[in-house]
């Protein structure tokens, strides 16, 4: 009996150990899947239309990563403000450095997660990089300063406003960061939480330092500044297939002049660019295309052969 009991005890312990091990592996797999899923969502929402990869040295397949800068980069909107410590900051005095204008708020969890990495970047590129935090908090400057002091933020913070946000084309989500080259031109915008190495590679490239990444350019058609939406030759989610060149021009003009009725106070084109999931702007854009295709809206210039587009219906 003792021997049988001993054998049963050993077998039971072995089975328990196997169960614990399998549970641990399962738990790790679940955590990894959740973390990976979050990263993919953030990257997908934040990339410009021409971007397909982040700027890490290489992905798991060994492919070289790509960073993107606007080929038609616009000057950084000028500002002249005092930071929370009373120090004078102007966009003119930032020339010669890479600048990251980071719109954030104390109540924003992704912003709180991003701040330590921004602090590391400010320290790593001291003298060559200037991060400026623009607080979009509704609270007082004293409350924001208390928050910043508690975590030791090492870059200047200014209190934001709707007016300042509008200067940058509107801030649809937090955090939103604008990357400015040493010439004072805004070359990239990141909406949402991005890995530190994305910024690090962009900063190094703009400073002329070696990077293990491919640098490509894209035309800003609203990805950075919404005022450039009229340069777009296609609108997210809207098919222009079958329209003549003249009809396409008319349709795009109408989408850039007629306002969306979803409450965003943007044109139909701007709303499609900033919020591709907006059903209201999609319906309005499709109606414009339908009317132009039917000829109920006169086309500008001579008609030509229909043009083909790889845009889903």
Polypeptide structure, described:
By secondary structure, the chain is α/β, with parallel strands linked by helices. The protein has three domains: 1-46; 66-218, Glutaredoxin (3-Layer(aba) Sandwich); 232-294, no CATH class. It has eight helices and ten strands. Strands 2-9-8-5-6-7 form a six-stranded mixed β-sheet, covered by helices on one side. It is globular.
Number of spatially distinct domains: 3
Radius of gyration of CA atoms, rounded to a whole number: 25 Å
The helix fraction, in percent, is 25-40%
**Average of the residue pLDDT scores:** 79
List keywords for this structure.
313 residues; alpha/beta; Glutaredoxin; 3 domains; 6-stranded mixed beta sheet; two-stranded parallel sheet; 8 helices; 15% strand; disordered N terminus; disordered C terminus
What does the secondary structure layout of this molecule look like, with pairings?
Layout: H1 2-46, E1 66-70, E2 74-75, E3 80-82, E4 88-90, E5 98-104, H2 109-124, E6 129-135, H3 141-151, E7 157-159, H4 162-167, E8 176-180, E9 185-191, H5 196-206, E10 214-218, H6 245-255, H7 268-274, H8 279-294
Parallel strand pairs: 1-10, 5-6, 6-7
Antiparallel strand pairs: 2-9, 3-4, 5-8, 8-9
Helix pairs in contact: 6-8, 7-8
């Amino acid at each position: 009996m003792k021997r049988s009991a001993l054998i049963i005890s050993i077998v039971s312990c072995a089975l328990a150990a196997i169960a614990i091990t399998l549970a641990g592996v399962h738990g790790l797999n679940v955590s990894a899947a959740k973390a990976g899923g979050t990263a993919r969502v953030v990257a997908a929402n934040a990339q410009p239309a021409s971007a397909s990869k982040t700027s890490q040295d290489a992905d798991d397949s060994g492919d070289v990563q790509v960073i993107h800068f606007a080929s038609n980069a616009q000057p950084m909107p000028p500002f002249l403000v005092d930071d929370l410590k009373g120090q004078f900051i102007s966009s003119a005095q930032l020339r010669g450095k890479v600048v990251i204008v980071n719109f954030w708020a104390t109540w924003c969890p992704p912003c709180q997660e991003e701040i330590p990495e921004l602090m590391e970047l400010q320290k790593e590129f001291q003298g060559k990089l200037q991060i400026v935090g623009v607080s979009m908090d509704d609270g007082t400057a004293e409350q924001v300063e208390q928050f910043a002091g508690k975590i030791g933020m090492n870059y200047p913070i200014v209190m934001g406003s709707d007016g300042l946000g509008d200067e940058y084309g509107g801030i649809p989500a937090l955090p939103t960061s604008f990357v400015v080259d040493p010439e004072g031109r805004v070359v990239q915008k990141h909406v949402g939480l991005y890995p530190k190495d994305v910024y690090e590679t962009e900063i190094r490239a703009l400073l002329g330092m070696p990077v293990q990444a491919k640098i490509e350019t894209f035309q800003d058609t609203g990805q950075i500044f919404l005022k450039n939406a009229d340069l777009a030759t296609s609108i997210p989610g809207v098919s222009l297939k079958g329209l003549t060149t003249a009809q396409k021009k008319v349709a795009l003009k109408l989408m850039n002049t007629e306002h969306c009725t979803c409450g965003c106070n943007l044109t139909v084109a701007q709303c499609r660019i900033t919020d591709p999931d907006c059903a209201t702007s999609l319906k309005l854009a499709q109606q414009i295309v339908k009317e132009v295709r039917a000829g109920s809206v006169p086309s500008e210039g001579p008609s030509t052969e229909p043009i083909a587009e790889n845009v889903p219906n």
